[in-house]
Design a protein that fits this description.
There is one protein chain. With about 150 residues, the chain is of the alpha/beta class. The chain has three helices and eight strands. The protein has one domain: D-tyrosyl-trna(Tyr) Deacylase, Chain: A. Strand 4 and strand 5 form a beta hairpin. The protein starts with a strand and ends in an 8-residue tail after the last strand.
């Protein structure tokens, strides 16, 4: 899930881990069928997605072109299954032994594609994520549906 933000931050145990001004807050959910190729594709899509306004006020500019920043936060709850009952199931979300290496690859790939360091959360931590969604613009991308 990608959110265009005016500002965003991640706080863990009362300490700010990451903060940005204009840019993207990216919440990523990893499942067992995700691959390094999915990470490469997704990263390229995120940094080149034209969702920032140009001089005419039209969404036609990418975060890379604006010089904006990115915060990447791992969020297993994006894979919540709610079909049965009222308690979500997270069976589709990868366990840490699969998810952590892919999350770390995503960090490296985004930094490479963006051309500068990104902010992150901390895998498995209890995080407080604050954001001011700009627009609001929120886009959901699924690597299993690359149409």
């Amino acid at each position: 899930m990608i959110q265009r933000v005016t500002r965003a931050s991640v706080t863990i145990e009362g300490k700010t881990k990451s903060s940005i001004n204009e840019g993207l807050l990216v919440l990523v959910g990893i499942e067992d069928s995700d691959t390094p190729e999915d990470i490469e594709w997704l990263s390229g899509k995120i940094v080149n997605l034209r969702i920032f306004n140009d001089a005419a006020g039209v969404m036609n500019v990418s975060v890379k072109e604006t010089g904006g920043d990115i915060i990447l936060v791992s969020q297993f709850t994006l894979h919540a299954a709610t079909k049965k009952g009222n308690r979500p199931s997270y069976i589709r979300a990868s366990k840490p032994d699969v998810a952590v290496p892919l999350y770390e690859k995503m960090i490296v790939q985004l930094e490479s594609d963006l051309g500068k360091p990104i902010g992150t959360g901390e895998f498995g931590a209890d995080m407080k994520v604050e954001l001011l969604n700009d627009g609001p613009v929120t886009i959901l991308i699924d690597t299993k549906n690359k149409e």
